[in-house]
Design a protein that fits this description.
about 200 residues, alpha+beta, seven-stranded antiparallel sheet, six-stranded antiparallel barrel, 13 strands, about 40% strand
């Protein structure tokens, strides 16, 4: 589990095709935390397992399922990614509970100034829009955000200068793809309701 509070920005050092899936390597020097083999790391919203490491370079095997549902397969050497180590029970929950299980790929459709902040609008696949509610939480590329408004399959958030500065959002542009994880509670509520109607 994670909180959606990004701890550092990592840099992709390699993306290597292996037997139909991908081994992704990330320089996590800025994280300042030594991860062991088998540890989990949230990489731009995706929970990955450390399978090899050499110094601060951490390698992860990315499955076909993960490649299909996330932006990780489109990463190139030099790309910036948001990093957050797994939550410990003693940690503060600064954002919201995030599983690192991405629901789908969204897209940045607008970035506009809003006083000292920026107003970002994202578009998500229509089936995901029902899980996004005004003043609810959503995780975009591993960042816990509060939803300001929802219109159809688009939603808006405000990014304060600090969030832009310390995350990979600083390099994003209109049209870029992002990983979307809807709120855990919304997922379970729908599952429970589906059981009532079955």
């Amino acid at each position: 589990m994670f909180t959606g509070i990004v701890q550092a920005i990592g840099i992709v050092t390699r993306s290597e095709a292996r037997g139909g899936d991908v081994r992704l390597s990330v320089d996590a020097t800025a994280l300042g935390v030594e991860l062991a083999l088998g540890d989990s790391l949230c990489v731009s919203g995706v929970c990955l397992t450390v399978v090899a490491r050499e110094g601060a370079i951490h390698a992860f095997d990315v499955s076909v399922e993960t490649l299909a549902l996330t932006t990780l397969g489109a990463l190139h050497v030099g790309d910036a990614v948001n990093l957050e180590p797994a939550l410990r029970l003693s940690d503060r929950l600064g954002g919201h509970l995030v599983s690192g299980h991405v629901d789908g790929i969204g897209r940045v459709v607008a970035i506009e100034p809003d006083a000292r902040s920026q107003r970002w609008t994202f578009e998500v696949p229509a089936p995901l829009s029902r899980y996004i509610a005004a003043k609810g939480s959503v995780c975009v590329d591993g960042v816990s955000l509060t939803v300001n408004d929802v219109r159809g399959n688009r939603f808006g958030v405000n990014l304060i200068p600090h969030t832009v500065d310390v995350t990979a959002f600083r390099g994003k542009c209109v049209g870029d793809a992002v990983n979307i994880e809807v709120d855990l509670i919304a997922r379970y509520v729908e599952r429970l309701r589906a059981g009532e109607t079955a």
